[in-house]
Design goal:
- With 182 residues, this protein is an alpha+beta fold.
- The protein is built from three helices and six strands, in the order αααββββββ.
- The strands form two sheets. The protein has a three-stranded antiparallel sheet with strand order 1-4-5.
- α2 packs antiparallel against α3.
Length: 182
């Protein structure tokens, strides 16, 4: 091969990290290459160890997150169920009194309803109960019928069944009667 041949090997002198070409000598080059190789192998071992540690930490974090998600799903209703237990207790107490008067039963039903409403509110279950004349909202209301009325079109005339939101998401829309367009 000629010296001008682009396929010819470059000068066999090794270059340092700065890009400068170092001269090759018969006695110093192999010692320098050996020390450079040892240095690179040590750095490689260090980087490989750091990689394995990071990979293990990521795997542990993923596993912990999966466990937490699993527990959250498993016990998601725990707080809600706990807040409903007094309601169940009240209903069982009412059934246990066969000689209760209708007035006592009605008073107990009202107290139980207050307990249930309180439990729902604590768990962010909010009533949707639009007032008569409120604008019909198809995201929170379901029109059951349309009737002519003396109020503005597409407004609520009556609520047939209350709806509920849970954390700003409609659990059940309110069933309403709305006014017909004029």
């Amino acid at each position: 091969m000629s010296q001008n041949d682009p396929q010819a090997p470059a000068d066999s002198a090794p270059s340092n990290p700065n890009g400068a070409i170092e001269p090759t000598s018969a006695d110093g080059s192999s010692a320098h290459a050996a020390s450079k190789l040892a240095e690179l192998e040590a750095k490689h071992a260090e980087v490989a160890d750091a990689y394995l540690r990071a990979k293990a930490e990521a795997e542990n974090t993923r596993r912990r997150a999966e466990d937490e998600i699993s527990k959250a799903r498993k016990f998601a209703v725990e707080g809600f169920a706990e807040s409903l237990l007094p309601v169940k207790d009240s209903l069982e107490a009412a059934i246990a009194l066969p000689s209760a008067t209708p007035e006592q039963l009605l008073e107990g039903v009202h107290a139980t309803l207050r307990q249930l409403s309180s439990a729902l509110e604590r768990n962010r279950v909010i009533e949707i109960n639009p007032a008569a004349g409120a604008k019909f909202d198809p995201h929170q209301h379901q029109a059951i019928s349309v009737v002519p009325a003396d109020q503005e079109a597409n407004t609520v005339v009556a609520v047939l069944q209350k709806g509920y939101l849970i954390s700003d998401r409609v659990l059940r829309p309110a069933l309403v009667t709305v006014t017909a367009p004029k």
